């Protein structure tokens, strides 16, 4: 698979990931009734939930930036 194809697929996957993750983060907040907790607890929840999507996105980005098979990487 070429890097160009991986970037196209990865971009689509990232958009889907962000949309699904946002819905899930809000659903979990509703189930846990975060809005009824203290303002500090609500802030901590949304801060952590707002950063956790970076982990799966990083895996996708790493996969996207792999060099083509048989070619040396242009990244240093």
What is the general shape?
elongated
> What is the arithmetic mean of pLDDT?
90
Our measurement of the CA-to-CA distance between the termini, rounded to an integer number of angstroms, reads 21 Å
Cα-based radius of gyration, to the nearest Å: 17 Å
**Quaternary organization:** single chain
The low-pLDDT segments are none
What is the structural class? Answer: mainly alpha
Helix content: over 70%
Please provide a written account of the structure.
The model has no long low-confidence stretch (mean pLDDT 90). The radius of gyration is 17 Å and the shape is elongated. It is mainly alpha-helical and 76 residues long. Helix 1 packs antiparallel against helix 3 (54-64). It has one domain (3-64). The protein has helices at 3-31, 39-52, 54-64. The protein has three helices and no strands. The two termini are 21 Å apart.
List keywords for this structure.
76 residues, mainly alpha, 3 helices, 71% helix, elongated
Task: List the SSEs and their pairings.
Blueprint: H1 3-31, H2 39-52, H3 54-64
Give a short overview.
This protein has 3 helices and no strands. Helix 1 packs antiparallel against helix 3. The longest helix has 29 residues.
